[in-house]
TrEMBL record:
Domain of life: Bacteria
PANTHER family reported in the protein's UniProt record: NUCLEAR INHIBITOR OF PROTEIN PHOSPHATASE-1 (PTHR23308)
Keyword Phosphoprotein: yes
InterPro entries registered for this protein in UniProt: Cell_Proc_Reg/RNA_Proc, FHA_dom, FhaA_N, FhaA_N_sf, SMAD_FHA_dom_sf
SMART domains recorded: FHA
Residue numbers spanned by region Disordered: 224-244
Residues in the signal sequence: none
Domain FHA: 146-195
Protein known as: FHA domain-containing protein
Residue ranges with Basic and acidic residues bias: 225-236
Database matches in Pfam families: FHA, FhaA_N
Transmembrane segments: none
Keywords noted in UniProt: Phosphoprotein
Organism, scientific name: Agromyces mediolanus
């Protein structure tokens, strides 16, 4: 099974869950995934023996009707697409000049079900955005501690009777993450093994009761700094590539 097949199966699971009511007809998320992959592969430029540069800024154009349905999801779909682009580039050992940006736009000239992708290479700083993926929803993690549990005092409330009121916390220092049990009744598992305190690697799975929580780190374009007069632009310094 190819890499794109794995991507599409992962996105298909999301479609069958939280996205199911939105995507019954017209353009499908997996078709956007395929179009993004083709755009990356087509625009890959060999800079040197160890450096193949690919676009990092994408504009995905579709019919107004398809755009309306996609827009109902807010940032969830875009985050998923950024994650898939990031993984595809890492698997091919491609590199980006900055963080990944994907923007959806309506196009009156496109009919329902059609998609076109425009891309460019934009240098800039990367904002590493950690998120917890729970039942098809994405919860950004703020720097510091994020508490998960069944109680109202938890930062992320879990509707799971197997969860304690303050069950566990995810710590993020800006570059690394940990998960720590807070003395819960049923404990936690990380990638199927019981733990009390452990480092979190990207795409690792925390299990609390019957709830499956996926930790992800998205490489997104950093917010442009504000300048006077009110104009914004990216810092042109810096370079990053997929982690080994």
């Amino acid at each position: 099974m190819g890499l794109l097949d794995n991507f599409e199966k992962g996105l298909e699971r999301a479609v069958n869950g939280a996205f199911a009511k939105t995507f019954r007809s017209g353009l499908q998320p997996v078709e956007i995934t395929s179009a993004l992959k083709r755009e990356i592969d087509t625009k890959a430029a060999v800079v040197s023996r160890d450096r193949v540069l690919v676009p990092n800024t994408f504009t995905v154009r579709m019919s107004a009707e398809d755009y309306d349905r996609m827009s109902r999801l807010g940032p969830a779909l875009t985050d998923e697409l950024v994650d898939l682009v990031q993984k595809h580039a890492a698997s091919q050992r491609f590199q980006f000049a900055g963080g990944i940006t994907i923007e959806l736009q309506p196009d009156a000239e496109l009919s329902v079900g059609m998609v076109q992708v425009d891309s460019q290479n934009v240098k800039g700083q990367v904002a590493w955005t950690p998120v917890l993926d729970i039942d098809g929803k994405r919860y950004p993690i703020i720097k510091g501690r994020t508490v998960l549990g069944r109680g109202s005092e938890a930062d992320i409330a879990l509707g799971d009777t197997g969860a304690s009121r303050r069950h566990a916390e995810v710590q993020w220092d800006g570059s690394r993450a940990r998960v720590r049990d807070l003395g819960s009744t049923n404990g936690i598992q990380l990638d199927g093994a019981p733990v009390s305190d452990s480092v979190l690697e990207p795409d690792s799975v925390i299990t609390i009761g019957r709830t499956r929580i996926v930790f992800r780190v998205l490489a997104q374009a950093a917010a442009a700094p504000r300048r006077e007069p009110a104009t914004e632009r990216h810092d042109m310094n810096g370079f990053w590539g997929p982690a080994e």
